[in-house]
Specification:
three-stranded parallel sheet; TIM Barrel; binds adenosine monophosphate; 2 domains; five-stranded mixed sheet; alpha/beta; binds manganese (II) ion
Length: 292
């Protein structure tokens, strides 16, 4: 048998199923992201803006124009065990009314939170942060910590956004405001009721104890969640191995995505991550009938 008769393993696919546009806290339009993904060799793409699906029709059209396959996407902010967890949704109906409404509600607290963040920054001498952050916002319903970080870099308070998060925007720092996002149950339900797949985003990023992490995966499964990001821009190579094992242990499908936000800020570009490890079920295998 010649090697050419063996079909490639389905894990060998340049799928990038996690990134952000100006519709949330990215700096590129859906069209510019699609062109960049194509140039980097992406074969299957998803735009996953935070708590927002307003860019989905544009992204799907741009993928089509570039000859790439597409899955609808979003990344929902959830509060679990007093920590913010992100749940990626893929392959859902972008016009599903419950999902559109649920995400609208989740976005609702961001304006008030932003004003409180600005007050906190003013108390340490940084004035006008709300107005400053707004200049970087592409979607008025989606003011995020990232926009504050860009303003603090622009105004010379910090050299780069990572430094802003470290010094000002994380728990215990002057610009941090605790916030309650959606429940895990609601987020998974919105996605699955709209025929999509719910996926735990970048699990290594959360500061959970082993017991809390076990509870997250167990409850997520019980609610109908089906996948976990294994290869992501925010995991190390050891974390790919660790979460490949977790995927097998919990019977979850595996996803791959850069979490690209901006050419200036992101260290992982679209389509440049290693392939998924073998021996896993890629999420795109279960979503085959929803690929556009
Ligand atoms: P928010 O949803 O407003 O709380 O903002 C969360 C976003 O901030 C994430 O999606 C990332 O884009 C960004 N972010 C969070 N932590 C960091 C960090 N340590 N360095 C850089 N960006 C971060
Ligand atoms: Mn972000
Ligand atoms: Mn995230
Ligand atoms: Mn993300």
């Amino acid at each position: 048998m010649t090697p050419s008769t063996t079909p490639p393993a389905s894990s060998i696919l340049n799928a990038d199923l996690h990134c952000h546009s100006v519709v949330s806290d990215g700096t590129l339009t859906p069209e510019a992201l699609a062109a960049r993904a194509k140039a980097n060799g992406v074969e299957l793409w998803a735009l996953t803006d935070h708590d927002e699906i307003g860019g989905q029709h544009r992204a799907a059209a741009a993928a089509r124009a570039n000859g790439m396959k597409y899955l609808t996407g979003t990344e929902i902010s959830v509060t679990f065990a007093n920590e913010t967890v992100h749940i990626v949704g893929l392959g859902f109906d972008p016009d599903d009314a419950d999902m559109v409404q649920g995400l609208h509600k989740t976005r609702g607290g961001r304006g008030q939170r932003a004003m409180e963040m600005s007050d906190g920054l003013a108390r340490v001498g940084i004035k006008g942060a709300y107005e400053g952050a707004l200049k970087f916002v592409g979607n008025p319903e989606l003011i995020s910590r990232t926009h504050f970080a860009r303003f603090l870099v622009e105004s010379g308070v910090c050299k780069e956004t990572a430094e802003v998060f470290r010094k000002y925007l994380t728990e215990g720092k002057p610009g941090y405001v605790p916030h309650r996002w959606a429940s895990l149950h609601d987020a998974v339900k919105w996605i699955t009721s709209a025929r999509g797949m719910a996926i735990i985003a970048h699990p290594a990023r959360y500061k959970f104890t082993p017991n809390e992490e076990y509870a997250l995966f167990t409850e997520f499964k019980a609610h109908g969640g089906q996948g976990v990001e294994v290869v992501t821009g925010s995991h190390t190579a050891q974390e790919y191995v660790k979460y490949a094992e977790t995927a097998r242990e919990f019977g979850l499908a595996a996803s791959r995505g850069s979490d690209f936000h901006s050419p200036e800020e992101s260290h992982t570009d679209l389509g440049t991550l290693p392939f998924l490890p073998g021996g896993l079920t890629p999420v795109w295998e279960l979503l085959a009938d929803r690929i556009q």
